[in-house]
Amino acid sequence: MSSSTPILYHAKIVPALIRIQHEFGYLKREAVEQAASELHLPLHRLNAVGSFFPHFRLTPPKKITLKVCRDLSCHLAGSKKTLEELQAIVGEDVAVEGVSCLGRCDRAPAALVATPGHEHDDYYVGRTTANLREIVEARKRGEIPTPDYDADLGYRAENFTINPYGAGLSTYSGVLKTLAARDTSLHAASKVLEKTSDSWSSERLKQFRLAATLRSRPEDAPDAEIGAAVKEWATNHGWAKDPSMGDWSETILTEFKNADLRGLGGAGIPSIQKIRDVRDAIRKARRLATDDRGFVVVNGDESEPGTFKDREILLQMPHVVIEGVIITGMLTEATQGFIYIRHEYAEQIEACRAEIARAEQLGFCGPNAYALGRPYPVSVFVSPGGYICGEQSALIEAMSDRRGEPRNLPPKLETNGLEDLPTIVSNVETYSWMPYIAINGGKTYAGLGVNGWNGRRLFSISGDLKRPGVYEVPMGLTLRELIYGEEYCQGISGDRPLKAFAPSGPSGGFLPAKLKPPRNQLENAAWKDLAARRGFDPNAKELDLLDLELELNLFRSLSPTQALGAGLTVYAEGSDMTAEAVNSLEFYRNESCGKCVPCRVGSQKMASLGSHLLKGEISAERWEKELLPIVRDMSKGIELASICGLGRSVPVPLRTLVNYFPSDLDPYLSGKPVRTR
């Protein structure tokens, strides 16, 4: 199957449905039937996909649809009240709906206006209810008030360390370093071959190097001897089994290891683990002469409420993302790259497509990537929506023209991903640090951290802050420095005290301003080290949350939810954590894909319980004696039996509310509803 022109993968159903949605504003039946006929696919396949993803409408929409985000930061900013007040403008031509996180949490509340026949929605962020009413009235008159654009926020690529090119254009120097490592290995292999036989003339060695870079089949090589040599080198086998030859990719992977580069979507898995797994799976296929294609996929779905840092990387620095995809393709010998971006990020989609075109002109990707010596097409896949597609196997299902439901694993995606072939899926930021590390070295990147931690990363932080936004910080910076630092958030709005902190969207629950120490605290190395660095007594009975350093391993050791994601949300004193927790339960109910019973039923039961709480329909006695034990048992069942991380996250908001904010819960157990913002 291996050749210089491998069979390319192209999704069919999702792009076709997106085109229909853009043209008509919904999936018009006649258009879907025509698409099914043109694609030579049964109609039920298109209907199954179209009925799953939230971007697709199955019935004609009204002339104007106003959608207001109802999650986390937007809920904190009063979007629930906004939605209630806007019901007054609902009419024959106007619909008002709630929508899951739009990725503009730094300008809450976020809203959009969808108009049939328009390819992209218009976003209006940080607007008052009155202003949104005016926007709708203008749209009814045929006017289009100027939307709010991400590009106007003032972020600039030259202000981020992750961009090694400053204010200049990318020269793809990280790719060139990787190419140099590959070519050095081919030169070393040529020297070895030259010594094995007089038949290896300079011309035949040149043919060997050319065939190796083109990923030629042994039978396509100039002769069997060259074909066999290419196979040995390409699979790190036999005489070529050496880091200086067939294992040349270890030269770059060692730098990633020295950098301690990890997955920056939340899991924190060392990046080299996935790269090696995919590389080795492709090598095995080449040895067996089976289909040796492989895929590199960027997870730019970014649908976790409170998370929006990838939004700025994709918009301001698409070149580092694409360069990371090319480097990974070279290290793994993958044949195709994809950048999966949520459809709400129209500006980001266009920025990435423009940079891909530029990289193709430079010869670093595309059907004729002459700088690489072989084809390596890279393209953007536009997501049809859904929080569940942030889960990597659900993302692959969506790309495979199926409903975006998580797979039951094993096998892993690294061996059986897209097209049931080796596939690496990693976060936008993980790929984006690769050029910097390849150019400057892993130890240089590691040295960018503080307080004994390695590297830098980007956080999106929102909520009750004077200056929410996207900040690139040294790993190990304290939460206090991020919230109160003059170059960062500059403090909590209204100069109120910190009440709670969501360290990873709703999936990390809510932490109080003061944490209890871990069990056996004097035996906990992370606790003792932190006490020494921060200067508090290791026998202390509580830890000021602001003294926690922003590093995943530390949070896993000391935070009760063990979570540190890319989306951080701050709650000031006066926030109603019961209302915020119930809002998160409703988010999981809304976004559960429904594939597995524990998550489908459990999220609904949890959200229903939250609704009864907010209405003041549960007494304190019934809560303590009857419902709380049931909640705890149900939580265990959901966590143990759910297929993916969404299900395992469902109980977390309520659990942290019960454990850390009982005084916020008590008013709702009095038998009277409490008015929330």
Question: Helices and strands in order, then pairings?
Answer:
Elements: H1 13-24, H2 29-39, H3 43-50, E1 64-69, H4 72-76, H5 79-86, E2 94-99, E3 110-114, E4 122-125, H6 129-140, H7 173-196, H8 202-213, H9 224-234, H10 250-259, H11 271-288, E5 295-300, H12 309-316, H13 318-332, E6 336-342, H14 346-361, E7 378-383, H15 392-399, E8 423-427, H16 428-440, H17 442-446, E9 456-463, E10 469-474, H18 479-484, E11 498-502, E12 511-512, E13 514-515, H19 525-534, E14 543-544, H20 552-558, E15 567-572, H21 577-591, H22 597-614, H23 620-641, H24 645-649, H25 652-660, H26 662-665
Parallel strand pairs: 1-2, 5-6, 5-8, 6-7, 9-15
Antiparallel strand pairs: 1-3, 3-4, 9-10, 11-12, 11-15, 13-14
Summarize the structure.
This protein has 677 residues and is an alpha/beta fold.
Domains counted in the coordinates: how many?
A: 4
- CATH C-level name of the largest domain: Alpha Beta
CATH architecture of the largest domain: 3-Layer(aba) Sandwich
* Strand order in space, largest sheet: 10-9-15-11-12
Helix content: 40-55%
CATH topology name of the largest domain, in short, is Rossmann fold
Number of helices: 26
Distance between the termini: 60 Å
Mean pLDDT: 95
Write down how many β-strands occur, each being a DSSP E stretch of 2 or more residues.
15
**Strand residue percentage:** 5-15%
- Please, what is the CATH homologous superfamily of the largest domain? NADH-ubiquinone oxidoreductase 51kDa subunit
| Sheet of most strands | 5 strands, mixed
Please state the CA-atom Rg, rounded to the nearest Å. Answer: 26 Å
Query: What shape does the CA trace take?
Result: globular
Class per helix and strand makeup = alpha/beta
Low-confidence stretches: none
